[in-house]
Amino acid sequence: CGFTVVAAGSGCVMGCATPSSVMRCLGIPTRAVTNFNSGHDTDGNLIIDVFYDKTGQLLPRKSKDSVWNFHVWNECWMARRDLPAGYGGWQVLDATPQERSNGLYCCGPAPVTAIREGDVQHRYDAPFVFSMVNADRVAWLLSGTRKEKLHWDENSIGIHISTKDVGSQDRQDITSAYKHPEGSLEERRAFLKALTAWSRAGAEPETTRSPARSGAGAVAATTRSEAMSPALAEAQLSLQLRLVESAEIGQDLHLMLLARNLEAARKDVKLSLSTQPVLHDGTPRPPFWQDTHYLSLDPREEKRISWRIAYGQYGRHLGEDQQVQVIALAEENTSWQKMLAEKTVTLARPSLTLSVLAPVVVNQPFPLHVEFINPLPQPVDGCVLVVEGGGLVKGQASIELGSLQAQEKGGIKFQLTPYKSGPRQLHATLTSSLFPPIKGWKQLEVAPHPGGN
To answer: Which site from 14, 89, 241, 415 is most exposed, i.e. has the minimal number of CB atoms within 10 Å?
Structure first.
C-alpha cells in the first residue's frame, strides 16, 4: 500500500501526536493532555527534592528529581478488566517516559481515577504518573554533606492540566480529574494513601522502575518518615518575591522582595539574592546576578527591596526556554532560622500578527501580511520568516529578511496558494541570530473552488 513520508520532530509534543493518530485510527478515543509544572520523580518517593547553597543558588546534579515547565501525554478511553470495577475510562499513556518500567522505557496505561484517589497500587506505573501531577516539592539548604529543610510545598506540582475542548480551539481544564483541590483534606488523604502504598511496594512491587542513578555528589532523597511529617518550625519571617513590571525579552527585569517580621521582637536578617537561568526540564544554569543585603526589622515591620537586572546582564545567558529562577534566602541572626522565597519568571516574547487581505479559495492565490518586531535593544542579523500549514503551503516557505535594527518594527506582504479546502491553520515563525523564535498563527477557512477542487 502507499504511504506518505512526513517531517518528524522530537520531544513530548511530537511523541504525543503519533499515538493520538494511531489510537484514533484503531477506533480508541484518544486526546492529548498537557501538565504544567510537571514532576519528574526518579526515586519513586513521590517527593521532588531540590537543593540550594547558602548564596541562594539552585544546585545542579544534587538530585535527579526535577520539575519540567510542562509535559504532554495521551489519555485513551478503555475498559480495564484487569483491575477492580471503577478504574475504566480515561487511561494515561506516556509515549516519552523518562524512566524505565520493567526494564523498558514505557509508561501506562494508568487509570486517571486511581491517580486522583491515590490508588497507585493499580497497574501500570501509577506512582510515576501520580508524582507528575501531585508530588510534593521539598527545598533543602546544602552545606557540605549536611542538609537543612527550607520549604515544603504541597501545591506547585501539576497545575492547569489541560486538553483541547471538543469542537473548538479553547483549553479545557481537567485538573480536577487528576486530583482533589489543592489544600483540601481529600487531596492530602490521597497523597498519604499513595505514599503508604509506595512504602509497601518494596515487598510486592506492582512494577519495577529503575532506581535513580546517583550523580556525582548526589544527596539522599526525602525519606518516608520525613514525608509523613513535613511540618517546619513556625515562621518568624515572611518573604515574597514579585515582578514590578511584566517580564519581556529585551527589557529590564524589575523585581521586588517583601520582607515582613511576623513577631513582636526586632530582627536582624541577612538576605542572599540570586537569579539564574533554568531549562525546560528544571536544569539550572550558573547565576548571572547575585547580591547580599542586611535588614533590620522592627516588630511587625515590613520592608521592600527592589532591583533591576538589565537585558545586557541576562540576555546572553538565556536559552530558548527564556526562564529564570529568582531566589531569596534569609537567615535571622539570633535563632538562625532560614526562610526561602522562589519565583520562576518566563520572559514574554512578542507575537507575529498575520492578516489575510482577501477571501481564501482553494487553488487561488491570496495576499497575506505579516507584522513583526525586533524586541531587543540591539541590532540582529540573519532574520528569516518561515511559513507553514497543511493544505496551505507544501513543506515550508522561507523568506530572508536580513537585519533588523534595535526594536525595529516591520512587515512583509506575500501570496500563498492553498491546495486543500476546509479549516486550516497557518503558522509563521521569525528567527534571528539573537532572539528566540517569535511565532504567530491564524485559523483559516479555505473555500472550495467554484468549479470544484
So the answer is: 415
388 strand-pairing partners: 427
**Collapsing DSSP states into helix, strand and coil, what is residue 118?**
coil
Question: From CA 401, how far away is CA 411, in angstroms rounded?
Answer: 10
Residues 149-160 pLDDT 10s: 999 999 999 999
Q: CA-based Rg of the chain, rounded to a whole angstrom?
A: 25
- Residue 356 near residue 368, CB atoms below 8 Å: yes
pLDDT tens-digit readout, 294-316: 999 999 999 999 999 999 999 99
Q: Is the pLDDT at 439 greater than 60, yes or no?
A: yes
Residues 6+ away with beta carbon under 8 Å from 132: 35, 38, 39, 40, 41, 71, 157, 158
In angstroms, the CA 401 to CA 403 distance is 7
Give 194's contacts (C-beta < 8 A, 6+ positions apart).
46, 118, 119, 120, 127, 130, 134
Give the pLDDT band (50/70/90) at residue 225. low
The total number of residues shown for the chain amounts to: 453
Query: How many of the other CB atoms lie within 10 Å of CB of 327?
Result: 23
Residue 452: burial class (beta carbons within 10 Å; 0-12, 13-18, 19+): exposed
CA distance 353 to 344: 28
Residue 290 has pLDDT above 50, yes or no: yes
**What is the rounded CA–CA span in Å between residue 94 and residue 128?**
11
Residues 354, 358, 359: CA angle, nearest 5 degrees:
110
Catalytic positions, written as ranges? 12, 71, 94
- What nine digits make up the cell of 244? 514590578
